[in-house]
Specification:
Layout: H1 2-24, H2 32-39, H3 43-49, H4 53-69, H5 82-97, H6 101-113, H7 115-135, H8 142-165, H9 172-191
Helix pairs in contact: 1-2, 1-6, 4-5, 4-7, 5-9, 6-7, 7-8, 8-9
Length: about 220
């Protein structure tokens, strides 16, 4: 049992080393060799656990996901609105990220300057936001769920920019920005017209499909006059 435990500890040390280096310098300048040296492990160990820096970032995102999801679900009251529950979940995420803000700031800046870094991180960010929706009791399944995930990604990144500059101890600016963004998103959804889907003849039950009837002097009951 010692070997798996050692592997897990080694993996976490590599992630921590990458974050420590990111907090001190540009993420784009950090190599896998630098991370191995900082972690005090052979380069082969980094290779065994991660294939690239993007995979290290994905593992960091999953660590944050797990920390948020491990919170007691009873703290999210069923009587709260979906927006309030999502607010609580996303604030948990910011609180989990708070010790790593310097590293996140560097990585975020690199995503803006190096689009490939941002594109490589996008799939994991989408998965993370899907889990945040699920934690808030909001479905992330199907086409409607996909739209919710994409909308939440946009909302999250907009609020992240505020969080990165928020020096207040209680993250009051971040909370205000998140609340404002959630209210705007809720307003947009409420204003979206709901289109009724027309059922085609081949989708109708057989009993509803009738043969054409000859015209009569009076319209059948229920038909528009």
């Amino acid at each position: 049992m010692a070997a798996p435990r050692q592997k897990s500890g080694e993996r976490e040390r590599i992630i921590d080393a990458a974050l420590a280096l990111a907090a001190e310098g540009r993420w784009s300048d950090i190599t896998l060799g630098d991370i191995a040296t900082e972690a005090g492990v052979p380069l082969r160990s980094v290779y065994d656990h991660f294939g690239s820096r993007s995979e290290i970032l994905a593992a960091f995102f999953r660590r944050i996901d797990a920390e948020v999801l491990s919170e007691d679900e009873e703290t999210l009251g069923e009587e709260e609105s979906p927006r309030d529950r999502l607010f609580d979940v996303l604030m948990r995420r910011f609180e989990a990220l708070q010790p790593h803000r310097a590293a996140v700031s560097t990585i975020y800046a690199d995503c803006l300057c190096q689009p490939t870094t941002g594109l490589a991180s996008l799939p994991q960010l989408n998965r993370s936001m899907a889990w945040m929706l699920t934690a808030a009791g909001i479905s992330a399944e199907g086409w409607s769920g996909l739209l919710r995930v994409q909308g939440l990604v946009t909302l999250w990144l907009a609020t992240l920019r505020v969080w990165l500059k928020d020096e207040s101890e209680d993250m009051s600016k971040t909370m205000a920005a998140l609340d404002r963004n959630l209210r705007r998103a809720e307003g947009v959804l409420q204003r979206m017209p709901r289109r009724r889907r027309r059922r085609r003849a081949y989708e109708m039950p057989e009993e509803e499909i009738t043969s054409p009837q000859p015209p009569t002097a009076e319209p059948p009951t229920g038909a528009p006059a």
